[in-house]
Model the fold of this input.
Amino acid sequence: MKKHVCTIGFALLLSVFTVYVVLDTFVLGAVYDSNASKVNNAMFEEKDVAAKELPSSDAEEKITMPNEKSTVMADYENENVTIALSEYERFNTKIHVAEVWLASAEYLKTALANNAYGKNISEKTSSIAKNNGAILAINGDNYGSREKGYVIRNGIVYRGAANGSEVLCLYADGTMEVVSDREFTAEELVGKGVWQAFTFGPALIENGKITVTENDEVGIAMASNPRTAMGWIDVNHYVFVVSDGRTRESEGLSLYELAEFLEELGVQTAYNLDGGGSSTMYFNGKVINNPTTNGRIKERGVTDIVYVGDGT
Done:
């Protein structure tokens, strides 16, 4: 009888512990820094980062993909920022592309949910964007769902614990590359001029060449999914890409299909950010794609965004 009671007690304790671990990993929030709006402006003051003359929104420099169905959705421009928004149909999927030119990389910023750095703190991409005066925004790498992986935002190191990942590095000089966190500490990356760094991946394109195969995938994700990616074409010239998915109208993309699409856009470096229900693009006060959460068209909370302000 005692043995039976001990067995039941152990099973109950194990169940409670398992539930706690799951909640602590995926649900329970913890704030480590309640004021995560700091900006390392010295990164631009100390370095000779020249402003770039921007093209107009109807310039010939805009990316074109021959033989592809595309629609120009909107344009935005001022003295520091030019954005050209287009919509494509590829692989039975609707893909939203924002081509961005900046006078300086300082206008490509990041923001955290509830203006706080921590664990499992989430807010809708559109809400974070509105709170930070974003013109254009996409979801980031959802750093708060993991214990490790570099988190460098606006030139500030929030997390320097490596997890053996590829890290997307956006430099203050307007360039972008992917490095291994085995090569540099987070502090060393900031010393090298890294303005923003993301840990999700994988890298999709490096030096203009696709770096994933048809068999690559993120964790337990399906082959076709909503996706979010960033690409770099030239100094202070970027693309934000978000695809819909998991609906009858829009199947979604595999990592390789996403990389193929980005290669055709002419990017030299491209990196996969958090996808699935997180994939969201916001422009001028509206969510312009169809985020899909639990089978419904609905925005999901995320821990961070990448955005472009008006630069004025």
User: Anything to note?
Assistant: The first strand starts at residue 30 and ends at 33. Helices lie at 2-26, 42-45, 125-131, 186-191, 255-264. Residues 2-26 form the longest helix (25 residues). The radius of gyration is 20 Å.
